[in-house]
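Contributing: when you submit paired examples, paste them exactly as shown. First protein:
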Amino acid sequence: MISGSHIGLIAGLVYFLVLKLWAWTGWLKLSPQKVAAVSAVLVGVFYSGLAGFSVPTQRSVIMLIIAMAAIIVQRNNRPLNTLAVALFGVLIFDPLAILAVGFWLSFLAVLLIVYAVSGRMSPIGYFWGIVKLNWFTSVGLSPLLLFFFQQVSVIAPFANMVAVPVISFFVVPLALLAVIVMFISVTLADKLFYLVDFVLQGLWWLLAYMAELPIATVNHALPSYWALFFSVPGVLLLLAPVGIPVRWLSIVMFLPLAFTEAKKPETGAIKMTLLDVGQGLSAVVQTSNHLMVYDTGVKFSEQSDSGQNVVLPFLRSQGEVKIDKLIISHGDNDHIGGADSIMRGMVTEQVLTSVPQQLKDYAPSECMAGQSWQWDEVDFTILSPHQGFASENDKSCVLQIQAKNLKVLLTGDIEAATESWLVETYGAALKAEVILAPHHGSKTSSTPGFLQAIKPKYVLIPAGYRNQFGHPHKEVLANYSHINAKWMTSADSGAITVNVQDNDLIVRGMRDTESKYWNVK
């Protein structure tokens, strides 16, 4: 990835080389400084184009243009003015950049560096300068990192001290040199690329090892706006020059961040959240002291899955540090795909699944009809699978949850055969206020007899936006309407939460509760 610092490094190198070469030629009708400045800007713009003009590169290019323009017109400029103009330029180019997390982190990181190094009279060496800058940005951005990601990396400053010099002063220059050498000697360029690859492989191994350390990250619940209100001036006070009095008060101003706690359900109650994982399924059930995750969404590649991208961030935002039970309904990718990431990222006490052979590394238990447990006066019962089922979908773990004022049925991908068996076996006991639509609303499921036995008030459909399967099917939606059930899809509503407040069933989609004025319905 090309960062803003790389653009500054390359532009600075070009400026220095052009300045010396132009002065050496002796052709001084044009100022060497002006020619070098124009050359640096052209190379900087071209180089940032390789990164697709991301927010950090936009910021760097605009700041580079301002700095070089000051050289051309022979005027001094102040760092804060340059940063402000860069911010204005980025928003002119892309007004919606203000909605991106990277926008805030990128500009605030530079602002912190400017603030932390201004007004200091004692000179520092290169090494201690790198250490201090890492310290300033890591501590200064920690409140925002907690707010956006619910975690702060403890190991990042140490990783940056290794990675930044290696990438900036070795990998990037050598890779660019190899590109140039390709036009002269492919064999020599191949050797250079091999050397770059060797260094990157070693660096990746080191960074991966550091990321797996137990103390690598600190996870915490989503902080409140009040906690941020106090922590921001706390950052400024902590990073102020040594002569500023009562800097120790900054620690006190950080305390609201540490004591933020997510609200838990009362004893006998639950909070269920159907997460928006696209064309897949993942639901989180919380009681007053326990946590269960039902399915984990889809795996897109070796580097990306719903467990890492959606489920874990949600659990951290809720202040959860342990999963008491992970249920994988069956072995389809859209249900089991994120399991590995979740179990690597958070302590998981027990795994229950209909496909234990696919999760044998985690010592799972096989789910079977009749299994039950109780948490905080909430009853959980496995209703299916039964040994007679043959298809993968019909073997899905079907879970019934009985809370104080709410009954929920989680059905996985069961189809008509299992639905018929459930009605014959349990009859009226299947009745529930909320049900997760079987098989994402496929026409092979949600049969009229099954729905009549359950008589749900709400049907929650885990389906991706414009998915290739056409879920939910029109016939199925008609079946829901015939029993007067209100249906909601994760594609339209985002994450859907279910709980009971003052004896009233509350079912809300995130796109309703968190909607902004610019959202168009």
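Second protein:
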Amino acid sequence: MGVLHAIAAAVLFAVALPNEVFPYGVPWLSLLALAPFFVALLRTTRLRDAALLGAVFGGLSTILSNYWLANFGEFAVWTIGGPTLGYIIYNAILAPILRRLAESPRHLRPFVLAAAWTAYEYFKSIGFLGYPWGLAGYPLSDIPVLLQHVEITGVWALSFVAVAANTILAEVLVSADDRLHPTPLGPAEHGIPRRYTSQLLAAPRRQLPAAVTARFHAAASLGVVSFIVAIMAVFGAQRLRTDYPKVTEVDMVLVQQNIDSWAIGAEELGLRRAQELTRHGIDAGESKPELVVWSETTLQRPVHEERDFFLQRPDGDPFLPFLSEIGVPLLTGAPVVELDTETGAQRSYNAAVLLDNRGRMREFYGKRHLVPFTETIPLWEYSTVRWFFRELVGLHGTWTPGPAYTLFDLPNTENRQDAAKPLQFATPICFEDAFAYINREFTRAGADLLINLTNNSWSETNSAQTQHFVAARFRAVENRRTLVRSTNSGLTGILDAHGRVIADLPMFTESYLRSTIPVYRSQELTFYTRFGDYLPVLFLGLVLVGIIAPLRAERAHRTAQ
């Protein structure tokens, strides 16, 4: 029965998250989807059984919500198999910890479990294997008033209240099983204040039903969660009425060429299509735009080293003459190759480059958080590792992590209010806009605007792109910066400092977006930008105390005996 509960929770959780049927997820479902899993945990008595429940939930929920990873070409077995195996292991470790924490006092248990789950979500979202997809708070972000507080807490408070609601429901469901079985404790031992127990005290002291105390504590816990949500909503309503300081506006053309850049023969076809769409976008305005933005991997060769190629290709409409023709700076994804003058080693970056009308690179940013086991491989310097991935996996090279959080100067923004400080933008690449720490560091470094370059065309699904978009939306609100997303196939769009969509393009369509982008610069950084992920770290500390303290008390009791 417990396994069936874990399966039900996995299915409901996948439906609550963005998917093909519900593009931005189902917010209300996120408040109860995990409840069957917690019911199973509360009913089990053995940590081994809890580990099994975690493994079932982790594996099935990952496959159901991330099935599009199977479309990653010849690496599909690794892209879908790796995360699935990883989350089977993660959840098999997490579930016994949750079961141990479920021995906390009943009036604290929902919050202890929610804190532990939130700490786990933080842990799985950082580091080399970090993957900030499928967080419990994501569906609630589709409610604007509940999104605004992330400038203080990041996504973590949303995850906390969502999981707390699930644990409260689980408490009620579990207590229903015991409604006919009295407990040997009176109201005081259950932690119910005497002013609420005048009628209960009239009953025999040892006949107070467990369901009564469970419902009382559930109601009290639900009141606490409702109070937290009300504070979020009031704060969010106030913030939605706040106009953030707008320094200037930038006229941009975002190009969505909608072509699988990995397909054979797609290099020149994609480049030609991007150039044609750019011309249409430039002609759509009364004057030239200030910046043209193409997606990640639009250029598949380093511009400087392959200059002869770009002088002649694509055939009939070569790239470098095209740049001279449009006379507008181009921001695009492209490889960048550097030679270490001291060691002679070559470094290759998956980069965003800013090119002028002569094809010269003004600046570049090398992607810092690379996709593990696809863009970067540990121990690649060893021949055995290289042989394994080249011969058995089919991966023949890796990227070098970018050296710095590079910022670009916004071109042609003479109308800016603060002429003493150039306006600057940052370019998180691919799934980097889903990582809060990267965009926080960009903002702390001085970025006034975030421009993400992404290629999700390989996924062949809308849900992959909306899941990415939902994760990225938090970055705009956390830092109170406009987020521009220029993608190969979607979701291309513009989010203002409140996380609201200003403009966007339909997914998997060949099109362009000509828009005036607002640029904000607050006098002070947000609380989250300054202090980061303090909340889940605090939760982690509390969880460790909740685990260690009972163990020490148990050891002391045994010693005393």
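If you have annotations for the second protein, write them as plain sentences, like these:
The CA atoms of residues 185 and 206 lie 6 Å apart.
The two ends are 39 Å apart (CA to CA).
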